Amino acid sequence: MSTPTRTPHLARFGPDDLPDLTGRRVVVTGANSGIGFHAAKAFAAHGAHVTLACRNLDSAREAQGRLTGDTEVAELDLASQESVRAFAQAWQGPLDLLVANAGVMTPPRYRETADGHELQFGTNHLGHFALTGRLLPRLLEAEAPRVVAVSSIAHHRGDDSVLEGNPGATYSSNKAYGNSKLANLLFAHELQRRATAAGSRLTVTACHPGVSNTGLVTSPDGLGSLPGVKQLAPLVMPLVVQSSRAGANPTLWASTYAAPGSYTGPTGLMESRGRLGEAKQSRWARDAGLAARLWEVSVGLTGVSPELG
């Protein structure tokens, strides 16, 4: 990847400001729609080889058909640790950038992954934790590897109960989603701390998209399972929130120019939209002790222990 002569201004950053990514290999989870799609589109347009890592291969191939550049589709179901293992085992050669983007948002009723974890915690956090851990050897083969965790302003709903993994007995869809996105932030920070301590060249950043018009709302795994939501949301959402293309800008910044350990998001209207800047974090997100404990819990639940040595 060539190095630009000047870093773009964060507040005015957009897809056209990406550097030349020729020769870079990129994995974007959930790249078949929304923010993941627009991130993949921008990466490919700037020369990267982009893998759309998705659960629904038909949807991923349809999305690939709307992209230009060097792309491929690979099956990945983050709600299945076996699928995560298979994806990582199939990857050959260095990996420059892993964008942990895919997710499930607020299913109204308690649901579990194939491995018996609450769906949001198991998909949004444990799936990406295990994927990152299993791909670390390939990331560390790259010259300047980077991992990006896509969190949410909803992480402010989370607290230290994140360690419990959203048990069914106390399930609340919004609280569970908040805990899963808090987990994304805690994992990013802990991975960066460990990379720094190990003297690794790995960079880990985090971001959030504000409030954007994505498929999370209409997904049958989330609010889309409620009567009328799937029909009404596409009509209402474009009128009240920013586009998914705009929502991808924090991901693009975090994937290229953002400093290690940073957290980027929109700064307008309570961080729901607008120019990019440093995003606000809850006190729990800044709790290094909680992050370390979540790491150990995650190792126990997935059997994956990310190694940076």
Automatic annotation (TrEMBL):
Superkingdom field: Bacteria
GO molecular function, one term: oxidoreductase activity
One Pfam family recorded for the sequence: adh_short
UniProtKB keywords: Oxidoreductase
InterPro entries documented for this protein: NAD(P)-bd_dom_sf (IPR036291), SDR_fam (IPR002347)
Similarity comment: Belongs to the short-chain dehydrogenases/reductases (SDR) family.
This protein's name: NADP-dependent 3-hydroxy acid dehydrogenase YdfG
Organism: Nocardioides aurantiacus
